[in-house]
Amino acid sequence: MGQKLVIVESPAKAKTIGKYLGKSYIVEASxxxxxDLPKSKLGVDIDNNYEPKYITIRGKGELLDKLKRKAKKSExxxxxxxxxxxxxxxxxxxxxxxxxxxxxxCRIEFNEITKNAIKNAIKAPRKINVNLVDAQQARRVLxxxxxxxxxxxxxxxxxxxxxxxxxxxxTLKMICEKExxxxxxxxxxxxxxxxxxxxxxxxxxxxxxxxxxxxKKIEIENEENCNEIIEKLKKGQFxxxxxxxxxxxxxxxxxxxxxxLQQEAYKRLNFSTKKTMSLxxxxxxxxxxxxxxSIGLITYMRTDSVRISKEAExxxxxxxxxxxxxxxxxxxxxxxxxxxxxxxxxxxxxxxTYIKLVPxxxxxxxxxxxxxxxxxxxxxxxxxxxxTCILNTISVxxxxxxxxxxxxxxSVKFDGFTKVxxxxxxxxxxxxxxxxxxxxxVADKIDGKQHFTQPPARFxxxxxxxxxxxxxxxxxxxxxxxxxxxxxRKYVERERKTLIPTELGNIVNDILSKYFKQIVDVEFTAExxxxxxxxxxxxxxWKKVVDEFFSPLRECIDTAEKEISKITIxxxxxxxxxxxxxxxxVIKHGRFGEFLACPGYPECxxxxxIVNELDVPCPKCGGxxxxxxxxxxxxxxxxxxxxxxxxxxxxxxVNKECPQCGxxxxxxxxxxxxxxxxxSNKECKYVEKxxx
Length: 692
Description:
Blueprint: E1 4-8, H1 11-21, E2 25-29, E3 35-36, E4 44-45, E5 51-52, E6 55-56, H2 61-73, E7 76-79, H3 85-97, H4 115-123, H5 130-157, H6 168-184, E8 189-198, E9 206-213, E10 216-217, H7 223-235, E11 238-250, H8 258-269, H9 273-285, E12 287-289, E13 293-295, H10 310-324, H11 368-384, E14 389-400, E15 403-414, E16 440-452, H12 461-470, H13 479-488, E17 492-495, E18 498-501, H14 503-515, H15 522-536, H16 542-563, E19 572-577, E20 584-590, E21 593-597, E22 607-609, E23 612-617, E24 624-629, E25 635-639, E26 648-649, E27 653-657, E28 664-670, E29 674-679, E30 687-689
Parallel strand pairs: 1-2, 1-7
Antiparallel strand pairs: 3-6, 4-5, 8-9, 8-16, 9-10, 9-15, 11-14, 11-16, 12-13, 14-15, 17-18, 19-20, 20-21, 21-22, 23-24, 24-25, 25-26, 27-28, 28-29, 29-30
Helix pairs in contact: 3-5, 5-15, 5-16, 6-14, 8-12, 9-11
C-alpha cells in the first residue's frame, strides 16, 4: 500500500492535519488558489458564452509541478480545501491541474481540525460539488466583468488606479448616503428635567425623570418652558403613585457567526474586520499548544449559521454543570433565532473545538490578540449553552400635580450566562430605597438639562457589517475584504472609528449612481446573492445568470464612455514653500499615504514628507511634538529631536500637567464620555473634561 496525498491550502493547516494522519499520508499545501483569471486582461470570453480563461497563477508553477509529481506517486489524492464555495473551486482547479477524473471521490470536508473530524472526513470522500464550483465561478466572472469593464472608465475620467466592484460599489453608496444624511441633519434643541428625591427621614437620594404632563408625553423645547415647569414642580408635592415589581429575563446570546464575531470583536476588542478574520484563520488552522502540539482551536470561521452539533452541545453542558452547577445549564435545547433570508446553514456556528481548553489554561501558548479572540469565542459559546439571566426589576411612578415622573432599577436574581459572558456595559440604574405607594418625597434638587437631537450615527466597521448582512449583500467571507478595499482605494477613511467617504469616494459614487444604477442598487445586489445561492443548490445555469446581468450593463458602459466628462481633482495647496523653486507645495497621495510635492513637476521634482506639528512642547526635552505613523499606518506622537529624545505616546499629548502627579496629560475619547483628557501616568487615575 502506497502513501496517500492530502492537499490543503495553508502550511499551518498541513502541519496540524499531518499530526493526526500519520505516516500513511503526505499532507501538502497549495498556498491558496493555483489557477485564476489573468490579471493583465479580462480573461472572460464574452462572445463564447462567458467562458473563463484560467491560467496558472504567477509563482505557482513550481509548486504545481511538485504537487503533480507527488500525485503520480500516490495511491490516492484527497483535496481538503476549505468547506465553502471558494474552497470547492480551489479543489476543482487542483483536480484539473492534477488530471483527476471528475467521477473520482477525491474531495474531503471538515468543519473543524480535530482528530475525529479529520478521520471521519478521510472515511467519507465525495465527488467535487460542481454546483458549488459554478456558484463560485459565477461570482468570480461577475466581479471580473464589473471590475475590468467599469474601472477603466474611472481611470480615463478621474485618475488611474481606481476600481469599481459589484459589492464594493453598493457598500460605498451606503456610506456616502449615510454621510449625506449626517451633513443634512438639522439639530433641534430640547430639554429634560431630573429631580433628586429622598424619603423624609433618609439621606439616600435617587434620580427621577419627568416623563409626562396630563398623561401625554412631555416635550420641552426651550429653557424658558423648562424653568416654568421646574417652578411648578417646586411648589407641588412629590407623591409615590404606583410601584411595579417584576422579573425580567435576559436571554443568553447565540454562538458566533462570521458577522456577529466581526461586530463583537470590533466593539469589545477594537479589532478591525480584517484583523479579526486573520486571527480567526490562525486559530482555525492550528497553533502549537503546550502539551497538545499543533491543534485547531475553533471551527470554520466563515459561516452564517448558529447551529451547533449535538456532540458539542453535550460536551458544553457537561462542562457547565461541572464548572458552575447544574442550575446553569440551559434546559431549553431549541436555538431560537430570527430567520434570515440568506442563511445557508452549511456549517456550524463558530465555537471552540476543544471546549475543555479554557482560555486561561492555554494563554501562554497564544499571542496576546490570539488569546483575546479565542477567549471571546470560547466565552460566547459557553454562554450560549447556559441559562438565562433573571433580573428583579422595579418601576416607580411619582406624581406632582399633573406631572408624572418615573425611576426604575434592577438587581440580579440569577446571573445565568452573565457569569461567563458579561453584556457590554449598560446605563447604571438607581439604587432605590424602600418606597410605599402614597408616601411623600422630598426634592433636594430639580435640574433642567439642555440637549440637541443628534444626527444619524455614521457607520463603524461593526455597524456596516451588520447592515450588509441584514440586506443580504455579500457573504461572510466578503465583509472584511469589502471594507479593506474601500480604505485602500482611499474612497473611505476612518475618523474616530467611523467610516467617512472622501472627496474621491463621493465622486466615484456619483458617477456609478448616475450611469450604473443596478450596480449600486441594494435590492439588485441582494437579489444577485440569492441567484448565486440557487446555482449552488443546482437550480440554475451560472452562465445564464451572468448573461442576464451583463447584457444590460454593456449599454450602460457605452453611455458612460460617451457622456462622462474628464473630472479633475485639484491637489490641496499648502502654505509650505518648495525649497528648490519657491512654489507653494501641494498634497499628493501615494502608495504610502500623503506627501508634499512641488506643483512644478517635471521641471521641479522636489518632494518631502508631511510633518504635522502639535502646539505642545515635548514633556521630556521641550522640543516639538510631531504626529507620526508607524509601519502599519497607526498614528502616534514623537519628539522632533529623536533619536536624542525618545519621547513617544500613542495618545495625543496636551499642553497641561496633571495637577495630582505632574505627568503630561493626553486626549482620550469614547462614546460615553466624549472627548476628555487623562493623566498619562498609568498609576494616576486623574481625568477631566476637555474644555477645547
